[in-house]
Amino acid sequence: MNAVDHDTCKVVTPGDVLGKASEISPGKGTYVATDAAGVKLVYAALTGSLSLNSPSSPSDKRLVAEVTGHKAHGAVPERDCIVLCRVKKVTPMMASADIMCVGEKALKEKFTGIIRQHDVRATEVDKVYMYASFRAGDIVKAEVVSFIPILLDFLHPLLAITICSFGSGEKMVPISWTEMQCPVTGQIEQRKVAKVEN
Amino acid sequence: MEFVSPEGLRLDGRRPLEMRQLRAEIGSISKADGSAVFEMGNTKVIAAVYGPREVENKSQQISDKALVRCEYTMANFSTGDRVRKPKGDRRSTEISMVIRQTMESCILLEKFPRSQIDIFVQVLQADGGTRSACINAATLALADAGIPMRDLVTSCSAGYLNSTPLLDLNYVEDSAGGPDVTVGLLPKMDKVTLLQTDVALPEILQMDSKLPIDIFENVMQLAIEGCKAVANYIREASKGVEFDQIFLTYIIPGSQHFKDFRK
User: Fold this and answer.
1) For residue B224, is pLDDT > 90?
2) What's the pTM?
3) Which CB contacts under 8 angstroms, 24+ apart, belong to A1-10?
């Protein structure tokens, strides 16, 4: 059994033993499995440099082992994660959007999400006019609700249109919860506007 | 035909327990998420990995883990005679399935539900052991793509000709008609993920087609040792260690299984 290695520059490959599960807790790029002797060990799952970080929670005194590869693999949208998408198509009942970023990470290849009429806002859900909330090309921040197909919702005030552009190509400025204005022409269009973060 | 000379040399000058030269190159295809070129002697294989990405065919989506797709093709120029049908023929479909199952056992699929990982392997030059070279190349490509895995799967083949177990068969030895065993191994876990064997037909060899179980075990053990030797090389290559010099593996005569089948 290898002793726990405290050298933070050590390069590990998948299958390398990082330590006992009782001594270190698995972080990103690692996994836990039981070896032939029945001991629970933490193994590396990626090729990269090993780092032992301070414990994540005060109740868990174990060091957190993390392996960071030179290339982060593409993120996959999970339930309850905030994603940034571009609206592709708007119909009276739903809108479809290409998910481009998961949290802070940009995706190499897009995933497709669907926005249903009753997921747009919390009140008066049947009276939502989709075309007054989104247009094709808008950048939208949403929360993933479920999968097959990926459903997005906007119940949180921070979520909704963050960037949209008018026909002239100018980025529009939010002026209220439901309207955005083009700074060049002064024209107002209706959208579901996100709360501006300070 | 003599495959092992009285002095103990094979047709290409190797010893029976000697592997061919290994060479790996990572990141050759910049557009792919991960890629690798792997050479075992004259056999040259290129692998490209795309993923995890959205499943194209929603009906095939798996709710709790990733879907792995694998495609094995041989370039038209890979063998002596121009290959008529590079993909879609029975052998390619079978090898695609074998590589897919081997990689599925080592990728941590539960981390990417509802997504897909594509592995494409193409044989650029075939000189025996293409299956093994493809698995080794796919492992390197997956490591290059940063896809979490349990361990680096490695593969090697071994056979039995002129009453001698031979490691890492080339094309001539492979087509000689003797039995050959391909093993896929998780070296750190010491677990076998792939075991395929091809037993000779009596018409070709004019001898009994049965392969005695103790010889089979020896040949399989030899292939497993070969896998471990490949694993050492792959581990260093995936760390980015510059490995331009020729890497030869020689299983030392003092090792256990060598004594076993020397009568």
Assistant:
1) yes
2) 0.81
3) A1/A39, A4/A52, A4/A63, A5/A50, A6/A52, A7/A50, A8/A49, A8/A50, A8/A51, A8/A52, A9/A49, A10/A49, A10/A50
